Write a sequence for this structure.
């Protein structure tokens, strides 16, 4: 199984040609299962004023990747930090400050295109069983439709719930063809910078619309 970072996943419950859904970005791990940080040691909690804001992934001992919309309200580094090496949100592990945040220059908050940001930590993290960088997919590497991927985080665990899980969750998804996503959400919603993963029958995803 290949594990990759999925910042945002688009899932359809039913395919209805001509009926497009408005995307509402929320942090969710629908029908996920409890996970341990030792299984996903790259998983981080991005903190804003000391509290969990979004998930992030460690890409080196001093750099992380997250979604640009998670830092769009303020790029003042003094408000941000990351918590590494813990299964539980808002407790345990190691908290490190952030000294620089760079969002993609083409990030569009209306369409969520180019929704990616890099942050540099104020000090390097020490690697161990609970802290390790993620293996990134190559820029020219395509994931075939049907590839199994994992999404992890502390999102809400079922539709309609607004309370985040305190325990790290993971959900296994399948890569879905872009043209299928465009039928589900409209040709102007899904861009070539996005990937789709989930189940057409519904029930498992990282975002609920």
């Amino acid at each position: 199984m290949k594990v990759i970072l999925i910042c945002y996943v688009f899932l359809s419950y039913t395919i209805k040609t001509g009926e497009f859904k408005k995307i509402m970005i929320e942090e969710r791990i629908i029908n996920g299962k409890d996970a341990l940080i030792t299984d996903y040691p790259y998983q981080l909690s991005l903190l804003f004023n000391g509290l969990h804001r979004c998930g992030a992934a460690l890409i080196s001992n001093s750099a992380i990747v997250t979604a640009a919309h998670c830092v769009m309200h303020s790029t003042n580094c003094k408000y941000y930090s990351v918590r590494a090496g813990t299964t539980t949100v808002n407790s345990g592990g190691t908290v490190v400050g952030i000294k620089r945040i760079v969002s993609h220059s083409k990030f569009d908050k209306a369409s969520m295109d180019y929704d990616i940001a890099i942050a540099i930590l104020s000090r390097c993290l020490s690697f161990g069983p609970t802290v390790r960088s993620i293996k990134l997919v190559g820029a020219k590497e395509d994931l075939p439709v049907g590839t199994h991927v994992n999404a992890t985080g502390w999102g809400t665990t079922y539709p309609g719930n607004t309370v985040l899980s305190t325990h790290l969750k993971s959900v296994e998804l399948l890569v879905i063809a872009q043209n299928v996503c465009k039928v589900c959400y409209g040709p102007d919603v899904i861009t070539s910078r996005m990937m789709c993963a989930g189940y057409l029958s519904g029930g498992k995803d990282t975002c609920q619309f």
Remarks:
- The domain at 43-121 is CATH 2.40.10.10 (Thrombin, subunit H).
- The chain has a mean pLDDT of 81.
- Strands lie at 33-34, 43-48, 51-60, 63-66, 80-84, 94-103, 117-121, 148-153, 169-176, 196-198.
- The two ends are 27 Å apart (CA to CA).
